[in-house]
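Friendly challenge for the regulars: who can give me the structure tokens for this chain first? No prize, just bragging rights.
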Amino acid sequence: MARVIFGMTVSIDGYVADADGSAAPLYPDLPELRPTHYMTEMIDETGAVLMGRHTFAMGDPDGYAGRYEFQVPIFVVTHEPPEARPRESDRLTFTFVTDGIEAAVRAARAAAGERDVTCVGGVDLGRQLLTAGLVDELRLDLMPVLLGGGRRLFEPDTDLAALGLRKKSVLEVGPRTSLRFTVTR
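First reply, four minutes later:
Bragging rights claimed.
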């Protein structure tokens, strides 16, 4: 069965976006990151993507087909699908899931087959998946930057203390340190 992987890039002080809502300070290495073994391995392992509505809307929805790293079925968790259907391709399709994260995970796992389901972006979606015990692996890419404020990945009131983490690997990719943890229940 497909593993569900939640990952984010974070600053040393735990932020995924600065005080202006920009994640740009966390991705100065993006052009160099794309052709690395680190990224190609992640792309090859991913059979479906879970995405929150906010993350979906941040980009150009019609630009995903053909330009997005993950050319796989994308499952967007939302209360309301967009009015206009975004452009799709023979490999990248969109499913807007309105009946909860469990339904989204079931559908994404079915689509992924033996490959992974990768949850990209979406702090709220990631927290919900972790709290519900639906994440098999947590990947945190630590960037050597202090943002001093902004959007935190884990808020103090988030009830995640019941989860256990077992270190799986540590990898240095340019300036980032990629930490992988197996989530134990």
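The domain at 4-159 is CATH 3.40.430.10 (Dihydrofolate Reductase, subunit A). The chain has one domain: 4-159. Your move, everyone else.
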